[in-house]
Amino acid sequence: MPASTPPTSPAAPRTLADAFAVRRAHGQAALIPYICAGFPTADASLALMEAAAEAGADILELGIPFSDPLADGPTIQRATFEALGAGMTVRGALEILRRFRSRHDTPVVLFTYLNPVHHFGLADFVREAKDAGAQALLLTDLPAGADTALEAVVRDGGLELIRLLAPTTARARVPEVMDGAGGFLYYISRTGVTGARTALREELAREVEALREEVALPIAVGFGISTPEQARLVAGSADGVVVGSALVDRLEKEGVEGAGAFLAELRRGMDGEGLS
Is 61 a catalytic residue? Predict the structure, then answer.
């Protein structure tokens, strides 16, 4: 269906828990693509959200562009700056979500930084995000416990608060990180910024298994996953596989159709299809 088609009746979104439960029942992990709102255009990012859902994505991360994306590598930074240059805003990103939600029930996590949310107005942002059809919020530069009042506004407004955890995080801090967390734990596969990599750390599976002893929520792994083989390896230990930079790369080179085909390849790889 073309991205410009007027919205029809809204689709009731599934919860994050539902998305993980469906995959878990089949012995599979959830596929979680990152999509930058407004890159290369608003219509293209909406079309990619729809293509991702059709390719087997279980949860979508919709990135709201920010001018100083410190956690992101060059690929997503470039997409972010192009989206901002083309006029993408917080309200514009929420409108993309609203249009997507009119036809799809795939859960959506809003992925952004504190500055855009504060500039928009925290309470207004949470209310409008929920109204547009978001299920959760991930603020990359909000350390757990740094602003409990802000966290309370997010949760009280009906959005689950997704936490990030790095390999360098002391295990003694894990309970604090998970206090008030919802949806899933986003475990960073390596230190540094986002970006596709040719290999994954050998310790990753052991780290995920160790975390299961302390974390009740599903564990999704991201940062650097770029091939079906890598996605399959991660899916062997984690509950979810997040792909961002590699998807943006494919979108730049091959457009929405190529990006959707790439996600379908990842889904098949995660399910053990077509790999030796």
Answer: yes
**Does the residue 147 lie in any domain?**
yes
Q: Would you say the C-alpha torsion 136, 47, 243, 22 has a positive or negative sign?
A: positive
For the domain that residue 131 is a member of, what is the CATH number? 3.20.20.70
| pLDDT reading at 197 higher than 80 | no
How does DSSP classify residue 11?
P
Can you tell me whether residue 222 is helix, strand or coil? strand
How far is the C-alpha of 225 from the C-alpha of 247, rounded, in Å?
10
Task: Residue 115: give the domain boundaries.
Answer: 21-270
Query: 163 in a domain, yes or no?
Result: yes
Residue 246 forms part of a structural domain: yes
61, 160, 239, 271: the catalytic one is 61
The pLDDT of residue 201 is 62
* Total number of domains constituting the chain: 1
Q: How far apart are CA 223 and CA 238, in angstroms?
A: 13
Catalytic residue among 50, 58, 72, 271: 72
State yes or no: is 58 an active-site residue.
Answer: no
In three-state secondary structure terms, 160 is: strand
Query: Looking at 186-190, 218-222, 253-257, which range is the least confident one?
Result: 186-190
Residue 6 lies in a domain: no
The angle at the Cα of 239, spanning 61 to 93, to the nearest 5 degrees, equals 5
Burial class (CB in 10 A: 0-12, 13-18, 19+), 26: exposed
* Whether the model pTM is above 0.70: yes
Residue 202 φ then ψ, to 5°:
-65, -25
